[in-house]
């Protein structure tokens, strides 16, 4: 059981849908890889040391789908390769010194089982016309 950030409601791992994307050994260190986990969801996955992070592959700044090709610094900020906007791999937030920037990058839960990487598949909210 875990508590989602910003909530006091417990979440059970069985309540969350995950998709197997690759083996841990398939991920290069400090370089991103792009995966599709749903019809309309591409993610960027990064292995930094022993940790694996999954974020949306779409930059919230200009909607470019290139974050897998970005640079990750020592403080775990991912820089978009197009305009250099930075987002934290853990929180999705911009650096605190970037005043006036309010975009947040979507992050995804990751779990490892027997060298296999599993990433959370979030249920998309339906549009009012669907």
Description:
This protein has one domain (17-120): Rieske Iron-sulfur Protein (3-layer Sandwich). 0% of the residues lie in helices and 38% in strands. It contains no helices and twelve strands. It has strands spanning 2-3, 10-11, 18-23, 32-38, 41-48, 51-56, 71-72, 77-79, 86-88, 107-108, 110-113, 116-120. The chain has a four-stranded antiparallel β-sheet with strand order 4-5-6-10, with no helix packed on it. Strands 3-12-11 form a three-stranded antiparallel β-sheet, with no helix packed on it. Strands 7-8-9 form a three-stranded antiparallel β-sheet, with no helix packed on it. A hairpin with a 2-residue loop joins strand 4 and strand 5 (41-48). It starts with a strand and ends in a 10-residue tail after the last strand.
